[in-house]
């Protein structure tokens, strides 16, 4: 039985290597499922049919909309593309979402916490560090330059009485409604409870991110992080800043490599 198993594994390995060679010759993922590759492993086939990482054209509006800013991809201090506010599409999506939430009976306020400038984030973060130390500060506040709020594509919902919306499981029905319905407005819940390893952030029921309707539908259907959808690294801060890849370079360079025709 052991011998048989060994032979079986050998056949599988050879099959995988052969499959890998076929796959390696196919430069373009969308053409990789051909008759000659039908015998490749199930794993290889599913990898080529996944709707992610997404392929978008470098420099396109969609690439900008899908920009990833996280603990490994910072923005420059002067990044402020929408004059201190949200992008027009993010703002429209926010208004539509809040209207829908009210219609569904949720206790949501009209004002959000949207764009945050680098200097403002620095003040917030430095305050946490002074009060609690850096490790504790990192668990509750982004370092300046690493906050998605600086993109103008993200905002925090508030309850009508002022606090963060559905914070800390205070309204699980509302949190679930957002998970299920935000995509209709081109939005996603950016930091879901079970994707913290990928995003680098604890669950934030209230933090919404605009990605456009096409991306939001796929991200919601397959329950992905934005990192998984775009193929960008996530998780905690790099030990050294020199390992960071600036967000503005990452989305253009990475997406350029994945350029579709
Ligand atoms: Zn937020």
TrEMBL record:
List where Low complexity composition bias occurs.
30-50
> InterPro entries attached here?
DD-CPase-like, VanY-like_core_dom, VanY/YodJ_core_dom, Zn_M74/Hedgehog-like
Extract the ranges annotated as region (Disordered).
30-51
SUPFAM superfamilies in alphabetical order: Hedgehog/DD-peptidase
Q: What GO molecular-function term can you cite, just one?
A: serine-type D-Ala-D-Ala carboxypeptidase activity
Q: What is its EC number?
A: 3.4.16.4
**Entry's Gene Ontology BP terms:** proteolysis
Q: Name one Pfam family in it.
A: VanY
User: Its domain of life?
Assistant: Bacteria
Residue span(s) of domain D-alanyl-D-alanine carboxypeptidase-like core: 86-213
Keywords assigned: Carboxypeptidase, Hydrolase, Protease
Q: What is this protein called?
A: VanYB protein
Q: What is the lineage of its organism?
A: Bacteria, Bacillati, Bacillota, Bacilli, Lactobacillales
Name of the gene encoding the protein in the UniProt record: vanYB
